[in-house]
Amino acid sequence: MTADHLLELWYGLVNSGKPFLWVMRPDSITGKNGESQILEELLEALKERGCMVDWCPQEEVLAHPSVGGFLTHSGWNSTLEAITAGVPMLCWPYFADQQINSR
User: Fold this and answer.
1) Strands 89-91, 70-72: pairing kind
2) Phi/psi at 73 (nearest 5 deg)?
3) Phi and psi dihedrals of 23, rounded to 5?
4) Distance of CA 77 to the CA centre of its chain
5) What pLDDT score was predicted for residue 78?
6) What is the DSSP-derived secondary structure letter of residue 30?
7) 39: closest CA among 27, 31, 48?
8) What is the pTM of this model?
9) Residues 6+ apart with CB under 8 A from 4
10) What is the per-residue pLDDT across 36-82, written as a single tens digit (0 to 9) for each?
11) Which of 3, 69, 73, 87 sits a CA distance of 20 to 30 A from 59?
12) 19 and 50 in contact (C-beta within 8 Å)?
């Protein structure tokens, strides 16, 4: 994910007014320097409504009744876990089988 994509997604989540859990590895940002600074600023601004972590027990989170949707790269495991939990997916495929899985 580019830093620009990250910021647009962040604006959408913060401006939605809804609580959210955002799980993203720090090495997921591509193409720009200063990624750690961006993440620090995002974490500070998220404190009111959201929680940003680099890992979570995905199957447990998806099974929680308050989950309304799942933004996923459409990897096979994530796709199966979301289907099993009955959670709607917003697919953002990146490479390999993810394009096919997202259909």
Assistant:
1) parallel
2) -80, -5
3) -110, 120
4) 15
5) 95
6) B
7) 27
8) 0.80
9) none
10) 666 677 777 777 788 888 999 999 999 999 999 999 999 999 999 99
11) 3
12) yes
Task: Please give the Cα distance from 99 to 93 (Å, whole number).
Answer: 5
Q: Is 38 helix (H, G, I), strand (E, B) or coil?
A: helix
CB 4 within 8 A of CB 12: no
According to the model, what pLDDT value does residue 89 have?
97
Among 100, 46, 33, smallest CA distance to 73 is for 100
Residue 78 CB contacts under 8 Å (≥ 6 apart), including other chains: 58, 70, 72
Q: CA–CA separation, 71 vs 92, rounded Å?
A: 7
Tokens for 95, please give them.
């490479």
* Structure-token pair, residue 65: 């009744």
For residue 13 the two structure tokens come to: 């989540």
Q: Is residue 34 pLDDT above 60, yes or no?
A: no
User: Hey, what are 72's tokens?
Assistant: 């996923």
Structure tokens at 92: 């953002």
Structure-token pair, residue 102: 């997202």
